[in-house]
Amino acid sequence: LNLQKAEFIRSAASAADFPRDMLPQVVFSGRSNVGKSSVINKLLLRKNIARVGAAPGKTTHINYFLIDGKVYLVDLPGYGYAKVSMAEKARWGRLIESWFADTSLMTLGVMIVDARHKPTADDCTMGEWFKQSGKPFVVVANKLDKLKKSEIEPNMARIRETLELAENVKVIPFSAEKGDGRQELLSAILGAVGE
Ligand code: GDP
């Protein structure tokens, strides 16, 4: 899979815009500011295909990228931004619900959390969406570079416990800044899409 060959396909505001051409779809989710754009850019070795520092909460669209003509990378809008209106939150909920309503679209989930913190209630809700999808998913614990060595193991354990992850769900320590974890995430993706 040639990750350098990534192109933006479309921004979907509702289910009618979701591509349904049976190509594998790898879906990325995370709180606003967790570094989702940075993780995607690091993975694809691109500077700015996913916009870093986009206005939080202003993104109730699902962005689709096509990698090497073979795999969709699906960028779900970030959640948990305090200043978002109730109406906007409801819109987010409906959009995510409609995306997960058709789990045939999903090949692998990549749920991004902050390596420093205990997952939030919103993270736990997102975790439930992934679990209920019945599809494989991994948890990426981003901003690893902000942890002391001694904090890594206990923090990873706390993430696993708080999200009540099954044993087969990987927690990947990751730094979008330094590149740690990129290879492990890449292997999980390549394994899931059969490349
Ligand atoms: P998004 O809202 O989830 O897409 O988050 P962004 O990718 O825009 O990142 C939010 C902020 O976190 C930016 O200031 C990034 O530079 C920073 N950031 C993202 N990933 C990392 C990381 O691994 N380490 C550090 N130290 N900062 C990061």
Automatic annotation (TrEMBL):
Under the heading InterPro entries, the entry gives: G_ENGB_dom (IPR030393), GTP-bd (IPR006073), GTP-bd_ribosome_bio_YsxC (IPR019987), P-loop_NTPase (IPR027417), Small_GTP-bd (IPR005225)
> A GO molecular-function term, please?
metal ion binding
Question: Which Pfam families does this entry report, sorted A to Z?
Answer: MMR_HSR1
Which residue intervals define the domain EngB-type G in the entry?
22-195
Cofactor(s) essential for the protein? Mg(2+)
GO BP annotations listed:
division septum assembly
Q: Supply the alphabetized keyword list.
A: Cell cycle, Cell division, GTP-binding, Magnesium, Metal-binding, Nucleotide-binding, Septation
Coiled coil residues, start to end: none
One GO cellular component term, please give it.
cytosol
The role this protein plays is:
Necessary for normal cell division and for the maintenance of normal septation.
What's the family?
Belongs to the TRAFAC class TrmE-Era-EngA-EngB-Septin-like GTPase superfamily. EngB GTPase family.
Protein name in UniProt: Probable GTP-binding protein EngB
